[in-house]
Amino acid sequence: TMLHCVRSKMKSMALVSVLHLILLVARAPSATAFTINSPQSASSVCSSRSSKLMSSTSTTSEEIIPREILFGNPKNTSPKLSPDGKYLAYLAPNDNGVLNVFVRNTADENNDDAIMVTDDTSRGIRVYRWAPDGETILYLQDFEGDENFHLWAIGIDSNNSNSNGNSDNNISDNGQQVARDLTPGNNTKASNLITNKRFPNEILVGTNERDSSCYDMYRVQYKTGEKVMDTQNPGDVIGWGTEDTTFQVREARVKNQADSSETFRVRDG
Asked: pLDDT tens digits, residue range 216-248?
């Protein structure tokens, strides 16, 4: 009797499933409602959708932006005032399209009388700043794209004299300033340039000349090129900072390689 009851229930469940399927088929929309009768109607539907998509993404102009507008040199860029406010420096291309540093008097109404201070003929200059004396430009430049950026210094006027009263001894035979490499050496890179208005004749700059994997800080007399190590990197410091009054290196920034967090160490005064 138990087996008979089970068979009866299975038959009933099968019958219910069949009836349920019949009802679903009867209620379903006609299959023709989901078909496209001809290729023409299909293309018209696609065309309609494409036109709507194009209309929503098209621009107001069909002209292509010239490549030189996107990737060419600016007319001038990166303006910087000298510490005493007398001069304005900026980057602009020379006659051959290479970016160099130009300087003009701030009193001038335009750049007509600006002087090209640097004379780079290759990759162009991208990073520069005024030295504290207001008479020298400091800039970074590598050698034909090797990315070993050295720190260079050049005076803005061959008629200027140094603060000690002696004329600048970095003048070429034609009377032009000659750039001085403040961080010489093969495969040497300069980084972390720090200046201080209270110390107009010296700067701090990091180089990897002792150890290519890290940067030590050097104190440089940028008018003479004299350079001495100020702070040696223990191996994990990625950035340095100074105390403003004494211009001493007192801050070291360290990056944790495990989680990329940063820690600042402070040296006692």
From this structure: 999 999 999 999 999 999 999 999 999 999 999
Task: Please tell me the pTM assigned to this model.
Answer: 0.69
> What does DSSP say about strands 190-194 and 180-181: parallel, antiparallel, or unpaired?
unpaired
Least Cα distance to 100 among 41, 205, 177 occurs for 177
